[in-house]
């Protein structure tokens, strides 16, 4: 998967197109990511031991990983990434737009 937890991404499709946010979690099996303040949904929660006060909770829902691109601060835009192997054998992600190493 081209996106990792902690990356800053930009949404390229869907109702939140154009929004930027930090990746909170990644699910590679389902090809989904949860991005901060993107795809907000309202969940009705019952009172429990963890949550004393029940009610409506706003939270992020997962989006498909194909709908987000890694945000390149140097280019100030989203970019694709490619894998490159360094001389020491380490694999790193490289920005296609600027050629800089992301990791």
Could you describe the 3D structure shown?
A hairpin with a 4-residue loop joins β2 and β3 (32-35). This protein has a domain at 8-76: SH3 type barrels, CATH 2.30.30.30. The radius of gyration is 17 Å and the shape is elongated. By secondary structure, it is mainly β. The protein is built from no helices and ten strands. The two termini are 14 Å apart. The mean pLDDT is 95. Strands 6-3-2-1-7-8 form a six-stranded antiparallel sheet, with no helix packed on it. 0% of the residues lie in helices and 47% in strands.
Keywords for this entry:
103 residues, two-stranded antiparallel sheet, 10 strands, elongated
Give the neighbour order of strands across the main sheet: 6-3-2-1-7-8
Class based on secondary structure composition and strand pairing: mainly beta
Uncertain ranges: none
As for the CATH topology of one domain, it is: SH3 type barrels
Could you give the order of the helices and strands?
EEEEEEEEEE
Distance between the termini: 14 Å
State the assembly state of the protein chains.
single chain
Function: One of two assembly initiator proteins, it binds directly to the 5'-end of the 23S rRNA, where it nucleates assembly of the 50S subunit. One of the proteins that surrounds the polypeptide exit tunnel on the outside of the subunit.
Protein name: Large ribosomal subunit protein uL24
Keywords: Ribonucleoprotein, Ribosomal protein, RNA-binding, rRNA-binding
Pfam families: KOW, ribosomal_L24
Furnish the topology, listing elements before pairings:
Blueprint (H helix, E strand, L loop, with lengths): L7 E4 L8 E8 L4 E4 L4 E6 L9 E6 L2 E2 L3 E5 L4 E3 L1 E5 L5 E5 L8
Antiparallel strand pairs: 1-2, 1-7, 2-3, 3-6, 4-5, 7-8, 9-10
């Amino acid at each position: 998967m081209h996106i990792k937890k902690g990356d800053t991404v930009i949404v390229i499709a869907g109702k939140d197109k154009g929004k930027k946010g930090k990746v909170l979690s990644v699910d590679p099996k389902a090809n989904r990511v949860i991005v901060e303040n993107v795809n907000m949904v309202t969940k009705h929660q019952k009172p429990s031991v963890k949550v004393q006060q029940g009610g409506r909770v706003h939270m992020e829902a997962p989006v498909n990983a194909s709908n987000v691109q890694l945000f390149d601060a140097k280019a100030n835009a989203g970019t694709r990434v490619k894998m490159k192997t360094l001389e020491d054998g380490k694999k790193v992600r490289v920005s296609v737009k600027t050629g800089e190493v992301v990791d």
